[in-house]
Write a structure and sequence with these properties.
alpha+beta, Thiol Ester Dehydrase, Chain A, 10-stranded antiparallel β-sheet, two-stranded antiparallel sheet, 8 helices, 12 strands, about 25% strand
Length: about 300
């Protein structure tokens, strides 16, 4: 294997301490995380994507902002104060996909995955993992959703302005994120973007996750609760990018897989992002959300009622 290319160690910031969904604080609240047995409130996974952008721009050029894909499986949580560095394998001549990862100073892995350049994105980390899933049997928390189910509000309308608060799920603005982002880029700002091939500021890759989650409460996908979930994996794929600040988009959603582990039940939701003016497909985001079984108070009783064995 070729020698890895490393970025600098950075201190990702926690910006979800007051995040709410289903009327309660999320796992990004310190007390909630402690109650579930975690050392602290984790920083949201896609925060780490920003540390790959410069490395991947060096590998793929500016085309990465138009047709780039990061596909990651989150391995270990990061809390504020910890350091993280990203690394990539050098792209072999003619290849359109490579391996990526992130780690803490002691070598603890944060995420593993792939980065690629379209239109041939290759076998991404997310699709490799989905191919290995076994059919989920007798789900409890996710018993009311099905594979192939479409969002009730398809299409949803969404956009992102610099000073726009992104709601209860993301209680901050793009401007606030840019003041704390681990890796800045000139293309993220009005002034810096003037010299780009697009001439207007782009939404950072990690904030594409925020854009697609902004209206997620309108999907109609019903999970039992209250229960606490976290991101287990994510793929952000630009098809006709970049996505731009202040540009209106339309979102369509579909559940593409359901799964479970000993501790969690998971859904895999694909959000397709269309330009509201041209109706062209601009990006696709696949989010693997895992809900903690222990966080749903009725889990054991409802599992027993349907003959599901725990363990």
């Amino acid at each position: 294997m070729a020698e890895l290319i490393y970025g600098e160690f950075r201190h990702p910031r926690q910006m979800l301490g007051t995040q709410e969904y289903d009327g309660h604080l999320s796992i990004h609240d310190d007390k909630m995380a402690e109650d579930l047995g975690f050392a602290g409130a984790p920083i949201e996974g896609p925060t780490h994507f920003s540390q790959f952008v410069h490395l991947l721009e060096e590998q793929f050029g500016a085309d990465f902002f138009e047709r780039g894909c990061i596909s990651a499986h989150y391995q270990n949580m990061v809390v504020e104060g910890e350091q993280v560095r990203a690394f990539v394998e050098p792209v072999v001549d003619g290849a359109t996909i490579t391996r990526i990862g992130a780690e803490k100073p002691d070598g603890t892995p944060v995420l593993t995955g792939t980065a690629s350049l379209g239109p041939d994105y290759g076998e991404t980390e997310t699709y490799q993992r989905m191919a290995r899933l076994r059919p989920a049997d007798k789900l409890v928390i996710l018993s009311e959703v099905t594979v192939g189910q479409k969002g009730a509000a398809n299409p949803e309308s969404a956009s992102m302005a610099f000073e726009q608060n992104m709601g209860a799920l993301y209680p901050f603005s793009l401007a606030q994120k840019l003041s704390a982002i681990t890796e800045v880029h000139p293309y993220y700002t009005e002034e810096g973007a003037k010299d780009s091939r697009w001439g207007r500021p782009i939404i950072p890759m990690e904030m594409i996750s925020v854009l697609t989650q902004y209206t997620s409460g309108n999907t109609g996908f019903r999970a039992k609760g209250p229960a606490v979930g976290l991101f287990a994996g994510q793929e952000i794929k630009l098809i006709k990018g970049p996505l731009f600040v202040d540009q209106p988009y339309l979102l369509e959603r579909e559940i593409i897989a359901l799964s479970e582990s000993r501790r969690t039940e998971s859904n895999w939701i694909k959000s397709s992002v269309f330009d509201a003016d041209t109706k062209e497909l601009c990006a696709e985001v696949i989010l693997n959300s895992a809900t903690m079984k222990d966080s749903y108070a009725k889990y054991a009783d409802e599992a027993a009622a349907i003959g599901k064995e725990l363990g």
